[in-house]
Specification:
single chain; 5 helices; 142 residues
Length: 142
């Protein structure tokens, strides 16, 4: 009977872990992970007091499909300017949230998405980014 409870707890913990975006510890460790895993970076500049940042966290970043695609294909990093987290000068924006897609080197792939974006639109955007990243890798490896 005890084994069943342990199994149930492990199953619950495992399923909970898949229900949120796996954020890197900080910018530097996220870039390091991206380079090791050869994945693009999804970088968010945010603030705890920003209502649009909160809205993004409570909607798009809770979407199961968004979570699945981000966790599988990207290294996700979030930095809070109101906590004085590191935000590279080249990625600083006067408004938040700012959503960046970066190469593993930290170089921006595109201009940032500013503000709230619906989950369906965000999924389309990250599919485009992933396709572009894969194309760049094929060209680079020729």
């Amino acid at each position: 009977m005890g084994k069943i409870y342990i199994y149930m707890i492990l199953l619950l913990v495992t399923s909970l872990g898949a229900s949120e975006i796996k954020w890197a510890k900080d910018y530097d460790s996220g870039l390091s992970d991206a380079q090791k895993q050869n994945k693009p970076v999804f970088f968010v500049s945010s603030r705890h007091t920003c209502r649009y940042c909160i809205m993004l966290q409570d909607t798009t970043f809770k979407n199961k499909n968004v979570i699945k695609v981000l966790n599988k294909n990207f290294i996700a990093i979030i930095s809070y300017s109101d906590e004085k987290d590191y935000i590279p000068k080249s990625l600083w924006q006067p408004g938040t949230p700012a959503l960046w897609f970066l190469l593993p080197s930290g170089e921006p792939m595109f201009q940032p998405i500013m503000g709230v974006i619906k989950a369906d639109d965000f999924l389309k955007a990250i599919q485009i980014v992933k396709k572009e990243f894969d194309t760049q890798q094929k060209v680079k490896n020729k």
